[in-house]
Amino acid sequence: MSCELGEDDDRPCPRDENQCVTKGNPLHWGNPCLTYTVQVDGSPKYNLDADEVKAFVAQAFDSWKSVHCPGGGSPRFEVQFEGYVSCNRREAICDGANKNDNVIMFHDGNWPYRSDKIGVTTPTGGKESGLVVDADVEIDSQFYSFKSNSDGTMSTSLLYVLTHELGHFLGLAHSPVNGAVMSTGYQSLPFSRNLISPDDAAAICAAYPPGPALSCGLPNGPAYDQCQIPIGEKPPCQLASVTQDGGCGCRLAPNPRARPALSVAALGVLFMALGARRAGKKRKRAA
């Protein structure tokens, strides 16, 4: 929820029993036709080049896209690869989504967050409107091993990590349900080709309800290869990670005539909360 953008200890957002934020507008992309880029260095530490990273990312997105929704159909969104970029840090321009690249990158050293964070996904958006204009995914290859084992698996499953973080990219928050790839304990799950649990499927289908096929066309232009904000220059908005109870403090002017349509690409907390209420009677809500 938009309340989380810029949240701090002095101004905490109200939460329900499942730690779902109950204040603000749902974070949402303005268009379900999404794009991403891959940082060109990959992870030299683990001999992962950018092409291999791209393949893992595509597989993780496909895990979400191929979900069979209750009642039929699949989540209605599309994700296209926009290119490789040299910029190796998160940044965002608040003018709009067309001014940004959504970058997936590794940090083999100088990990900028706590050492227990295996990945951080940072959406940037309007604190009042909830409109997301950028989301960057950073993977901690400094404190976690992605070394290939003799059986072809990895010490830490990169596919699991990317599926979890790209769930945040798509708007899903952490789930309180054990066994969900969006749970905080997903790293301890046994390896399976079927990563998406029923709880995860319910969440992504609520965020992107099935509908007519999308006609997304090609990306509007090439990716921004270089970092757009020079080191040392104050960014146009303050960034923090939604998955660490923070967000972007910039304020985008909402459309005065219409509120964002949840069915377009509503992100996160609201749908997880709906899932929790629905499941709570038998028994949900951007690392």
Quick tags:
20% helix; 287 residues; single chain; 7-stranded mixed beta sheet; disordered C terminus; 5 helices; Collagenase (Catalytic Domain)
Walk me through the structure:
The protein has 287 residues and is of the alpha/beta class. The chain has a single domain, classed as Collagenase (Catalytic Domain). 20% of the residues lie in helices and 15% in strands. The chain has helices at residues 50-65, 158-170, 198-207, 262-265, 269-282; strands at residues 27-29, 33-39, 78-85, 103-107, 119-125, 131-140, 266-267. Strands 1, 2, 3, 4, 5, 6 and 7 form a seven-stranded mixed β-sheet that branches. Helix 1 (50-65) crosses helix 2 (158-170). The two termini are 16 Å apart.
Give the name of the CATH architecture: 3-Layer(aba) Sandwich
What is the CATH superfamily label?
Collagenase (Catalytic Domain)
| Mean pLDDT metric | 79
The total strand number stands at: 7
Order of helices and strands: EEHEEEEHHHEH
Summarize it:
By secondary structure, the protein is of the alpha/beta class. The protein has helices at about 50-65, 160-170, 200-205, 260-265, 270-280, and strands at about 25-30, 35-40, 80-85, 105, 120-125, 130-140, 265.
Task: Summarize the helices and strands and which ones pair or pack.
Elements: E1 27-29, E2 33-39, H1 50-65, E3 78-85, E4 103-107, E5 119-125, E6 131-140, H2 158-170, H3 198-207, H4 262-265, E7 266-267, H5 269-282
Parallel strand pairs: 1-6, 2-3, 2-4, 4-6
Antiparallel strand pairs: 1-7, 5-6
